[in-house]
């Protein structure tokens, strides 16, 4: 059994030192300086290929694996399929559990929770989009044609989720790469508003 660390920051300018210090007790560390928006990360792939049955993958926070629930779920599944388990340092319930069967049970439970959360997020945003389209059509404002982002585009859905959770358009642009003006157009098109937005109207 080996403890294998994975660290990630979003850009080359950001510093990995804090995570590396927290992971100093693992036997091997894989680290990426790439956005968590994509699972196409060389060191993430290398880590998933490297781990063996009984290994423990250690991350400082769960979002180091990724920023989108469905991607985190897929990565956790991949770890589990290799017979390894996950330890998240900022989740005390997963610290120091040596019993393999118990660790696997907790990992399975975490995966199921994330699957449920990811599906709930998608359904909520799709419902809001459908309502927005219906209202826009009723007002004669809905226009068809080729769009940059499709209605169910994962990146756009994630941007909507971030906005509803309180992120600013500037932060959403930084996290997702969607231009804030483009995002605002889609947000208004599908009438994705926070309670604060509605109070301003």
Topology:
Blueprint: E1 3-9, H1 17-22, E2 28-33, H2 42-50, E3 56-59, H3 69-81, E4 85-88, H4 100-138, H5 154-164, H6 169-176, H7 180-189, H8 195-200
Parallel strand pairs: 1-2, 1-3, 3-4
Explain what you see:
- By secondary structure, the chain is of the alpha/beta class.
- It folds into 2 domains: 3-117, Resolvase, N-terminal catalytic domain (Rossmann fold, 3-Layer(aba) Sandwich), CATH 3.40.50.1390; 143-200.
- Helix content is 51%, strand content 10%.
- The chain contains 8 helices and 4 strands.
- It has helices at 17-22, 42-50, 69-81, 100-138, 154-164, 169-176, 180-189, 195-200, and strands spanning 3-9, 28-33, 56-59, 85-88.
- A 4-stranded parallel β-sheet has the order 2-1-3-4.
- Strand 1, helix 1 (17-22) and strand 2 (28-33) form a beta-alpha-beta unit.
- The N and C termini lie far apart (58 Å).
How would you summarize this macromolecular structure in one to three sentences?
The chain is an alpha/beta fold and 201 residues long. It is 51% helix and 10% strand. Strand 1, helix 1 and strand 2 form a beta-alpha-beta unit.
Count up the helices: 8
Structural class assignment: alpha/beta
Any low-confidence stretches, pLDDT <50, length ≥5? none
Which percent bin holds the helix content? Answer: 40-55%
Ends distance: 58 Å
CATH 2nd-level architecture of the largest domain: 3-Layer(aba) Sandwich
What is the CATH H-level superfamily of the largest domain?
A: Resolvase, N-terminal catalytic domain
Number of strands: 4
Strand content range:
5-15%
């Amino acid at each position: 059994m080996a403890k294998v660390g994975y660290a990630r920051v979003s850009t080359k300018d950001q510093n990995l030192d804090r995570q590396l210090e927290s992971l100093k007790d693992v036997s091997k560390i894989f680290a990426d300086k790439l956005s968590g928006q994509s699972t196409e990360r060389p060191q993430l792939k290398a880590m998933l290929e490297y781990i063996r049955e009984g290994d423990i993958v250690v991350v400082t926070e769960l979002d180091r694996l990724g920023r989108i629930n469905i991607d985190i779920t897929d990565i956790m599944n991949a770890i589990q399929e290799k017979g390894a388990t996950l330890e998240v340092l900022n989740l005390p319930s997963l610290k120091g559990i040596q019993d393999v069967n118990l660790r696997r049970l907790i990992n399975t439970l975490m995966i199921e929770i994330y699957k449920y959360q990811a599906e709930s997020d998608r359904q909520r945003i799709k419902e809001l989009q459908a309502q927005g389209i219906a209202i826009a059509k009723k007002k004669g404002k809905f226009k068809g044609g080729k769009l940059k982002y499709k209605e169910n585009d994962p990146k756009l859905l994630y941007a909507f989720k971030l906005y509803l959770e309180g992120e600013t358009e500037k932060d959403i642009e930084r996290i997702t790469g969607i231009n804030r003006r483009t995002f605002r157009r889609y947000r208004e098109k599908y009438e994705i508003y926070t309670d604060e937005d509605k109070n301003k109207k």
